[in-house]
Amino acid sequence: MDLAALLDRIADDVAPEVGRGAVADYIPALARVRPGFGIAVADVDGGVHGAGDWLRPFSVQSMSKVFTLALVLARGDDVWTRVGREPSGDPFNSLVQLEHEDGIPRNPFINAGALVVTDELTCHGDAVGALLSFLRAESGHADIDVDAEVAASEAGHADRNRALAYFMASYGNMRNPVPSVLDQYVRQCSIAMSCRDVARSALFLARHGIRNDGTRLLGLSSAKRINAVMLTCGTYDAAGEFAYRVGLPGKSGVGGGIVAIVPGRCAVCVWSPGLDARGNSVAGVAALDRFTTLTGWSVF
Amino acid sequence: MDLAALLDRIADDVAPEVGRGAVADYIPALARVRPGFGIAVADVDGGVHGAGDWLRPFSVQSMSKVFTLALVLARGDDVWTRVGREPSGDPFNSLVQLEHEDGIPRNPFINAGALVVTDELTCHGDAVGALLSFLRAESGHADIDVDAEVAASEAGHADRNRALAYFMASYGNMRNPVPSVLDQYVRQCSIAMSCRDVARSALFLARHGIRNDGTRLLGLSSAKRINAVMLTCGTYDAAGEFAYRVGLPGKSGVGGGIVAIVPGRCAVCVWSPGLDARGNSVAGVAALDRFTTLTGWSVF
Amino acid sequence: MDLAALLDRIADDVAPEVGRGAVADYIPALARVRPGFGIAVADVDGGVHGAGDWLRPFSVQSMSKVFTLALVLARGDDVWTRVGREPSGDPFNSLVQLEHEDGIPRNPFINAGALVVTDELTCHGDAVGALLSFLRAESGHADIDVDAEVAASEAGHADRNRALAYFMASYGNMRNPVPSVLDQYVRQCSIAMSCRDVARSALFLARHGIRNDGTRLLGLSSAKRINAVMLTCGTYDAAGEFAYRVGLPGKSGVGGGIVAIVPGRCAVCVWSPGLDARGNSVAGVAALDRFTTLTGWSVF
Amino acid sequence: MDLAALLDRIADDVAPEVGRGAVADYIPALARVRPGFGIAVADVDGGVHGAGDWLRPFSVQSMSKVFTLALVLARGDDVWTRVGREPSGDPFNSLVQLEHEDGIPRNPFINAGALVVTDELTCHGDAVGALLSFLRAESGHADIDVDAEVAASEAGHADRNRALAYFMASYGNMRNPVPSVLDQYVRQCSIAMSCRDVARSALFLARHGIRNDGTRLLGLSSAKRINAVMLTCGTYDAAGEFAYRVGLPGKSGVGGGIVAIVPGRCAVCVWSPGLDARGNSVAGVAALDRFTTLTGWSVF
């Protein structure tokens, strides 16, 4: 299969979708982003292909949750006592479930769960520092960094996440002071990366735990299990629809990116900032739908 | 891989789990079932292997929902206007979600959704008759039938499902009279089959829509998408955990059976009547966990 | 105070509100009712005054719940083991709460609770017969009866109440067969009475349990306690607002009637079929608001 | 009626209840309080009677919500755009409802609603200062003050209230910075007063808005309406039960106090620190139940 040609075709096919949807307007710095579309595929043998704005950095937002979860699991399974693995079945930052289940978030990919993961990672040192080290190493781009303007913008609109964190603290499910966890969380979400860099950085999930330098980050089971959590919980309350249409483990962010894994083959990253009502990139989902239809590479 | 030996090994490995859990006691006829364990694998080339009580018929219960969904989708996609595709995130027969979402059930594998599927199938004629024809043809066992005692027992304990059906009717989401839909539903759940027969009958999902006689029941996309719905919604509110541990599309029933699909390879059916708190077979889940660990055949 | 003049003044004051709101359109026979307004006050000494359409019969609907509750409590307090006394805080026929609280309705004035009361009354014989006897005796009108057309119309639109009843049956909280309880319930709601007759029939609550013939229906405490339940739960999820604006125990019906009690003084019944979003008569609430403002007779 | 003798009798009658229930253990300073019982009645003519520990100061906690609401309403009705008037139907600090209703708390007596009231009062200056001035003037005790130890203890256990406040801030329903509102809220709850002083301070509600010095704090309607909100919402999710048993507007606090109003007659304050499962004083509710039974002074 000629992946380069395939990606160009997908970029053409989804062009009518680019510009549809709404950008995330609750974060001013994100609301100003220019429309566009990019797609990159990194295969397990080291090749990378792309189309469109695949080298243009964007805000990774919730896609960062995949990497912090992997870094925490690389240190052990303890975090699973503090966060579940079930789909939330509710909008992505709901407090309802948290109250019914005594401060234990449903899964690590809703905001409450990601705050727990960041809190756990913070117990081992500088969470954002560890995350940047990993992303720089995997992508080969030493200049990947937090976008300070986005971080400042998010910090000024973080009352709901602050509420989530204090609520979990009231149940004893916060180890570090809420302000410092929130600071780490806001900064991890504000990292800017290109489709190419995200796809490269997520390849360890297609390789069942093996990093780009051949060392092992995670055991085979842990890597497969992150894929499972991505498939059931990675796209907010549209996980069922995403599995139905795309059929791959995937994790989206309100910056317009989605990273998806074809186990044993490749990691894919798409980006386009217009979001659907559930917070997933309109053109991004369409592109992944085309990708699995054309390649036949869904997991099902 | 020597599947026969593998299944024997799994039967040995999970022996300590057999008898654990609780049988479904709200249906008297199920509460009296003897303990046991069976596993069968039907591969896409036609081979079938088994271990333990793999030829012993048991009550398929909610596993029937996979087959009625397939039979409805074989006639078109209309049913998706009446039922969603998202995990429920709530216990398996919850009315809460149904009320919040105006009588549209979250997915076809919770009871409310399955009632809609049965109602839709009933629009095309005798739903149970069509289901039995399909199962008899696929399994090669012409004597597969409804267990009249189980059906009578369930019909006497169906007030909650009756409530679900009338509730959907109040939203205009029932096409046929509730008593006749309930009768079809109770009888479809009361069909008795062995692990061997279930695995054979589910093979079309591993073959992306092709029946055992080589004819096509469903298009490739539809078949893949049923697998996707099974993975995200097939084991009540433990779908995330099942994906995490087993990593296969699967559908469980309170009779103690679970059917799972390895796309492109095989269909697996396990049975053991002791259920965990979420209604899934304790030894069955353990056996599938062993199966994917030993074969490496999870979809992730 | 010249009550006759006062009621005329109130009728004038609320004239602009008459015709506002929407009639209950889910029951065809109610949807066709002509606009109008009536108010009647029956005082504890036997006098009755009225204004507007105070002699015109209308469908009592949920106002019947006050009388069935009183008739059940006249036989003992057992019903309180099957139904609570707390405001529901949710729309008037919600199943959510019923599921969270194991089939025990929040209070006797939401539909689920009233079904339990009717079921309990049915254990002692013909519920509707007992109710009609009581209403005929108190009002002095022997021709008070069920409106057969309204009853037939409601019976054809009772799926939601049927769902509620079967749902409670699934928790063991139904003593009689659901179809017969529903039949009694639909017929009790379909009784037609005038404002005059309702006010006369409710006087026992203003007289702390004493009927119009001087005999005692209920003990003083029981009568006061029905008033308490009316004040906290009598107007669906607008009970707080009704207490705030009107300040009297009251019970509304979707037929447009509201009965209110001034303990120790009088019973008031207003009627006007236009309903607000919460199911209470727009002109009726406005009239009661005027009534307590002009008389100073709120309980607060 | 000899009130002094009546109160002694009530103190005797409820003696077996004193010590029952559990003290509020989430606030360490409250968990250490000694058992006891006090009752005081302040009548509208200026007389005050008491029994038991009626002069012993205790932590007013949520009873303070009545006074801050009155002080806010004395400045206008604007606060009603930010908080509702309906019973919550849920435990007293639930976030569920807040999420469903876009950051508008159900009523001013649940924690979220009281935070809004305190926030609103803070817009006019020092909320706790205004509250202390009022309480000192009404009670005639210039030394009424915040208990610094209790305030410190609460401030250290305020994560849940902090979560509520940030959550409302995320909906734009907080005017002042959350830390300063929380500080005011914690301190208002930590005021220590005796039954005598609380009863005296609440007399304006029995006098329909008139303070002890004869000046008017609130209009007649506003005062009656606070009573209405107390009756429907004053005792957490036991408001229906309290109305049923006691039949008076009342507001409880987890310090073990309850203040109740007999409109036109008197204000009553009871105190005993053992709480029932819903956070209301066990002996306190029993005493008020005896009080209305013996006097016949329920509002119904």
Automatic annotation (TrEMBL), chains A, B, C, D:
Catalytic activity: L-glutamine + H2O = L-glutamate + NH4(+)
Keyword field: Acetylation, Hydrolase
Pfam families, alphabetized: Glutaminase
Superkingdom, taxonomy of origin: Bacteria
A molecular function GO annotation: glutaminase activity
Binding site for substrate: S62, N111, E154, N161, Y185, Y236, V254
The keyword Nucleotidyltransferase is annotated on this UniProt entry: no
EC number of the protein: 3.5.1.2
Record InterPro entries: Beta-lactam/transpept-like, Glutaminase
Subunit structure: Homotetramer.
NCBIfam families membership: Gln_ase (TIGR03814), PRK00971.1-2 (NF002133)
HAMAP family in the cross-refs: Glutaminase (MF_00313)
Family listed: Belongs to the glutaminase family.
Official protein name in the record: Glutaminase
Gene name of this polypeptide: glsA
